[in-house]
Input
Amino acid sequence: MNISDVASHTGLPVKTIRYYEDIGLITPARSANGYRDFSDIDLHKLAFIGRARSLGFGIEACRDLLRLYNDQTRASADVKHLAQSHLSEIDRKIAELGQMRDTLSHLINACAGNDRPDCPILADLAADRGSV
Output
């Protein structure tokens, strides 16, 4: 199967598929003329990676998940630990976004939004809070 067919089947852009090959997540065979020749296993791996990425797993976590998927002697606890770590990171980011939202909402409510130049939003952004 050629790369455009694989892209159609997986929903991944051709550029992404090439990147995954470059970093060693997949290794499609090469035909005599040098073109990539993707197998059903490659197609399955790419769909697997695409699904993991859609859940926010990073490249190295995808590499770990593929390794665990291919290891028939793995413990499901290893997979669960990886997924739990990722979920904890998602929860941390959600908490940060909530704090950002609350702060911005407060600043918007404090701003009169009139023709005067006083603006608590700009004052807060300009406040010296030490080095960032």
Notes: The helical segments are 3-10, 14-22, 40-54, 59-70, 76-110, 120-126. The chain has a mean pLDDT of 94.
